[in-house]
């Protein structure tokens, strides 16, 4: 399953806080979006897959966010990702990272002492014409930082300029039994980012390994946006 302020473009991915470990040993970085920090986005270097500590912390962040985002849709066994799955994405250069840094004179890499990773997104080739982003998450402590929007914009540029795609796709799984406030916000946020629902997919058919984890009837929405 791929997946998602006063600014109507929603400067960050709307998520509800969940506990998890910090994604860096940096101690001089603020943890609120009001602080003067900069957000940068890039594809994770394949060598990051060898950093078990960081991979495990990313997995913890992703699963914590998705536990809230998919509440009432999946059972308690469901986990969005695993360390082996995430390592595979990193090794194939299909994971974009968002990080903050507070020292303009220091290297602005995600693994520098003054940086902290605050979000990620999976970015992949779907077909000769289509790219897709999913597993879009942002540290709830940094809502308003612009990380969610920057991850989507980076994914679009990467698919257009590096992968040669002309259309970007994303997906949203919505319960047909109840209204999930997070899903409502995500739908509106995708539309403000220029995405439109183009079809309703068969979630069980496309993700048969996840179907047994469902505890609600769902609608699988597929969104697209042309990459001009």
If you had to describe this structure to a student in words, what would you say it looks like?
- The longest helix has 18 residues, at 52-69.
- 39% of the residues are buried.
- It is built from 5 helices and 7 strands.
- Mean pLDDT is 84; it is low at 1-35.
- The chain has a 7-stranded mixed β-sheet with strand order 1-2-3-4-5-7-6, with helices on both faces.
- Helix content is 26%, strand content 25%.
- With 228 residues, it is an alpha+beta fold.
- The protein is globular and about 50 Å long.
| Radius of gyration, whole Å | 17 Å
Main sheet strand line-up: 1-2-3-4-5-7-6
Shape designation? globular
- Number-wise, the strands total 7
**Distance between the first and last residues' Cα:** 26 Å
Number of helices: 5
Pattern of helices and strands: EHHEEEHEHEHE
The average pLDDT value, as a whole number, equals 84
**Which regions are unreliable across 5 or more consecutive residues at pLDDT < 50?**
1-35
Main sheet properties: 7 strands, mixed
Helix-and-strand structural type:
alpha+beta
DSSP strand content: 25-35%
Helix content: 25-40%
What are the salient characteristics of this protein?
single chain; alpha+beta; 7-stranded mixed sheet; disordered N terminus
Topology:
Blueprint: E1 38-43, H1 52-69, H2 83-91, E2 95-101, E3 115-125, E4 130-138, H3 147-162, E5 167-175, H4 181-192, E6 196-201, H5 203-206, E7 218-226
Parallel strand pairs: 4-5
Antiparallel strand pairs: 1-2, 2-3, 3-4, 5-7, 6-7
